[in-house]
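Intended use. Records like the one below are meant for learning the mapping from a protein sequence to its folded structure. Do not use them to infer anything beyond what is encoded.
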Amino acid sequence: MDLGASIPENPADTRQKLPLETPTGANDRQHGGNHYKQMEYQHWDFVVDTCQPYLIGCATKYVSRWRRKNGIEDLRKAQHYLEKADERGVGQGMDFSEAKLGRFTGQLQPDDANVIELIMDGRNQRAIKAIQDIIDGHGDAGVPVAVQPEPQDLDRQHTPEPSTEEATGTSDLDDLPVSA
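Structure written out for the chain above:
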């Protein structure tokens, strides 16, 4: 059995044939939150579609989710990954579709979109500075920013159902036998 026959000579040839539409399946669920699922064009599809190296993909991940997940901590992680990418010379001269970049960044706040564009353009030091500007604009950098819902997410929030005790005036404990 010749396993090498199924591997393309140039893996980039297969990447160019990926569909522009967002696949379904794994995108329909998320473990540990909904910070990616809220996006029509999810981060991992963006990473694959634009052939981002690992360190760059991690940096763009943290920039794209910081407002919905871990606040300033995520921005600091993005800076750290960009520092490592610079040390290793990763992310320079990436060839990617502007349409896919625009599709992804169009879902983000303008400052975050700008940072992603800088990263994808290989301007990591400028991206690190832009991230620092975002951090500095949020007060004491040592205190995590409270993650605020995006305006479009406010209508998705719901009021929790009242507990049995609140709804009926009784407690589940009322049904337990009393021991002597």
